[in-house]
User: Fold these one by one.
Assistant:
Number 1:
Amino acid sequence: MFDPGFLWGAATSSYQIEGAVAEDGRGPSIWDTFAATPGAIQGGDTGAVAADHYHRFPGDVALMAGLGLRGYRFSLAWPRIQPTGSGAVNQRGLDFYRRLTDTLLDQGIQPWPTLYHWDLPQPLEDRGGWPARDTAERFAEYAALVHEALGDRVTHWTTLNEPWCSAFLGYATGRHAPGRRDPAAAVRAAHHLLLGHGLAAETIRGDDSHVGITLNLTHVTPVGTEPADLDAARRIDGMQNRLFLDPLLRGAYPDDVLADLREVTGFGHVHDGDLKRIGASLDHLGVNYYAPMLVGGSSTPTQSAYVGSPLVRVADGGRPRTAMGWEIDERGLLELLLRLKDDYPAVPLYITENGAAFDDVVEHDGVHDAHRVAYLDGHLRSCAQAIGHGVPLKGYFVWSLLDNFEWSFGYGPRFGIVHVDYATQHRTPKDSARWYAEVIRRGGL
Ligand code: FCB
């Protein structure tokens, strides 16, 4: 069961909701550039206006207070704070986050900032992006600036959101900004993201500053017991989970994953001392979970985000799916949480994202999103069971507070518990928002 201090929250990210991309001195990010590339985003959508949260944040915080949220996970746009990714602070950009955190605190909502949710300043990409070691150093500098400004009102910091996506969708498949297709660069990016996290943690951590990172983890099972299927599951678990968990919580890359990746690149970019820093960096771990993965061996090579493992296929588990086509299976979350407890040193865990897109219908009396309620209810039941088994789970943030810009899918998929009419920017809490408010009020299901 959930204890009274359990942190009930909701999450968003800067580029997905803020809009105002050219205001108050913000510089361009890789997502502005990518969204302007023909064919990169469905419908040619961009984050230029998004949910206009930059202008509407007081109303949005009032909405959160109305729902009884105890925590709000948001991200800071690096190019608002350092428009070119290095050098002096743009105070007007930082002021936005000062006002936001103050407004949250006034309402008794804990600000839970993420320093990087994918919007790298474009000038840093032009100098090599995450495949370049220098970006890790720049990130630590930026983290120190933000910590200096907000450290008196923020206690829990998240450095990066889902470095797997930044590295492998950004630099291997090209589905995300900056849209590069260079598997070796993606492997270097993964390391420099972890290093940037480690360096940032060193500058931030202190008595009142706890540091975490958010990973997109999943529960992987093989379709059968053939050696090729077992090997596929080992590889995908390696790339999706252990490539990040092991350095962070054990201070070493897993040998089998290094061996798989050696087909793509050497590891000269990993310097002495890097893993020691990365391995000593966490006070808590953020887990984003959406769906499990069922995988098997394949005889046809495919290029995917799982670089170095071309003979793997993702199979159909036969379960109902969300509007993203992601299979719904809350048991995967329970298995994942139990596995974290069994395989890694104990560290407080937070679900920093969990939620679902469905084809919501706006009716005259609201948005009756029963599918989303069922999804959230099922996954929260898994959380409760995990806690019952001794998993140190301390909080849960639903993805997402608001409908928003879903990256390369544009505005089609709606993940919000609050509906956004993009033509008027009118917000309508869905049934799921009312249901979640009641869960929070009762302190559980
Ligand atoms: C995660 C991202 C988040 C959102 C959800 C649906 O991978 O962190 O921004 O797009 O997926």
Number 2:
Amino acid sequence: MNFDNLGLIPSLLKAVKEKGYQEPSPIQEKAIPLILKGRDILASAQTGTGKTAGFTLPLLQRLSSNRSNGKRNIRALILTPTRELAAQIYDNVLEYSKHLNLRSTVIFGGVNQRPQVATLRQGVDVLIATPGRLLDLVNQKVLFLSNVNILVLDEADRMLDMGFKRDLDKIMSIIPRQRQNLLFSATFSKEIKVLAKQILNNPEIVEATPENTTVEAIVQKAYRVDKNKKASLIIKLILEGGWFQVLVFTRTKHGANNLCKKMIKSNIKAAAIHGNKSQSARTKALSGFKSGAVEVLVATDIAPRGLDIPLLPHVINFELPNIPEDYVHRIGRTGRAGAKGEALSLVSVEEKNYLRDIEKLIGNRIQITTVEGFEPDPNYVPAEKTQRSRIKHRSRNPNKGFPRRGSRR
Ligand code: AMP
């Protein structure tokens, strides 16, 4: 399949060509013609599938063909759970729309609203926003949504996980009922199905899993280690392996900060990224990581979801997530774009059950060994409380979008 056969106009094809894309990804191939026809879409697609271009290209085309000559109004609203994802989509929108007469902007919290308001006042066609700041500006009457005719919810599952349901309901009650809706979600949980029913009108269902080769290219390993030795082990592995461009996940913000401090003490250029960091600190950490000035980015699950960091050789789970699907999202940051990646998990005895749940979800066993000098203390007994306090989670969409690899060990 070729981009020329999707029904896109020359200005968009030119922008795509300038990005260097050879052919559309499976989700682009499926979604672009449907969106051009005006259909509602329910798409299961993770980051790395090309989903952003999949909705942005046809959305821009629809807006450019209906352009009124008067004042610019927000006609497309793209909602995302995090500021980083909003900024990333905005960059994509700018690139794809550079040969069109369309204006766009992005708004999110954590930064001064004044420049955002000034841009909005000049008039924009496409607005990318996080729900909180959007509603803030709507309430202040500096932002009007009465002309929205295309709505995109990106990473809708994460929006629900982050507690944005009420904000979403409010936004739905403000925007016109007559509109095209595009809902993207990595998983199809019960809650997502309810949301889809509420928002979408006779949707086409589009599914796209990350390319097999991408997932196949991820080598998954785990080390058994006591939790009080994890920091020394990770530092040893990074220093001895000469690793850089390492993304490390911790379960808490406090844990991310602590680990980051220890790494810096050991002369590793590390930065932490999580919800408690100011927007400028997050942007700085991320751009430092992309440029190579930061070698190790220590992150919590919420912060980096959807981040487009190409060619990441190492993802390390300093702690396993208690929601198995988060493991899939985390390791999806490595082995992208055909690059070979390694996902390593440090597993303490307290996390045994999390590992089991993850293996159940991915339908495969993860090879687990120990590192000499870091073997777990055989006499250590985890507090009963820790065992009992294991969070019972909902299993969202087991196995979906995650190909089985090899046979069970
Ligand atoms: P996304 O899943 O939208 O986050 O996109 C992941 C990455 O794939 C981004 O770096 C895009 O620029 C890139 N990408 C999107 N579409 C294509 C394509 N058709 N060919 C090659 N790369 C693409």
Number 3:
Amino acid sequence: MKTSVAIIGGGPAGLLLSQLLHRSGVDSVVLERKTKDYVLGRIRAGVLERGLVGLLEQAGCADRLHAEGHVHDGTWIAQGEEMFRVDFAASVGTPVVVYGQTEVTRDLYAAREAAGGRFEFEVEDVVIEGADGDAPSVHYSVGGERRRLDCDFVAGCDGFHGVSRRTIPEDVRREYEKVYPFGWLGVLSETPPVADELIYANSPRGFALCSMRNEALSRYYIQCPLSDSPEDWSDEAFWEELRRRLPSEVAGKLVTGPSIEKSIAPLRSFVTEPMRWGRLFLCGDAAHIVPPTGAKGLNTAASDVHYLWTGLTEYYRDGSSAGIDAYSQRALARVWKAERFSWWFSSLMHRYPEQTEFDLKMQTAELDFLRDSASAQRAMAENYVGLPY
Ligand code: FAS
Ligand code: PHB
């Protein structure tokens, strides 16, 4: 089989890239390790930056997003019994849209299928060959049959545990990592959200987040020890702990119900440089990971896709390699700003085992400054709604 761009990974990054390339007249094939249903069964991100909304509009996949997504002009920050609001609209004039990553992925699959997009599901033993030459190829097995995909370029959109990043020789790669000493226990419940906007809470018992997917589907998180597993937490124990981390006025309004999904995600900051090696380009979680506090994971995958899509379109349309040659440097410049914001917001909102009394005073002073300063709120809003591409 032959294509222009071989895309490894059928998550949001791979699908969005494939659809945008299609709209630019560039052919691609998506190779996905799992089944489509498995990919659509993942519960992950919930907040879309303006940049991602724009890309989905350019991909022709934003109709349901605009019909069912919820525009949020701000978010609440709770510290103990106190709460204050960061007003995105007043600070930077831009909202975010709350619309689950699962739905984004569903819309992208629908668009690719409607356009006759080529997929291979349940691929195994993927090997990228010749990425440092002029004629790369991707080799993989499906149902025990070994197959080969010849291409001009390979987009590694296969997430943190994929094969693409490891294809870049170790003496070429530089990796930067910070592992956080806690995880997030997440629950999805068919209950009305406790508030109209998100609530990020810093409580003496640890971080909590109240989010949602729609008026009847809520998403909640609490910081938990890395040694915990979802089975350690009954629904009742989760709701009780969540209540204890929220201002009592909010806790009193919490509508609880059976969890329909319960999982624990570890938190890490991770970046690999460069994001290009020859004709292999890394995109999304394959190249970087952020703690989900700042809702930057999916949204930074989107900005990578923007840079790669525009660069590849320029190559095929104008014969210019300027865009793809600048890809890694452009993508990393924005990735590191997303890493910084996610690290800053995680440091502000979580309780860390090694925190001293002084550290806690610094955290309280930072929260007070964010509460009282319009410029501090503007800086947060600028990052939260999404820095320009
Ligand atoms: P993805 O990991 O989504 O997709 C990669 C795809 O590649 C997967 O479908 C995988 O099956 C496939 N793949 C892997 N290896 C392969 C191989 N060898 N061959 C072929 N295919 C292969 N972000 C937020 O903003 N907010 C959140 O709340 C949030 N929660 C998260 C919770 C969890 C448990 C995880 C793991 C991540 C979370 N994220 C969150 C981050 C997440 O949303 C990612 O940023 C987003 O999925 C990035 O998309 P992709 O880069 O496409 O990677
Ligand atoms: C979510 O709704 O899953 C969500 C929202 C905001 C975050 C992280 C996760 O910062």
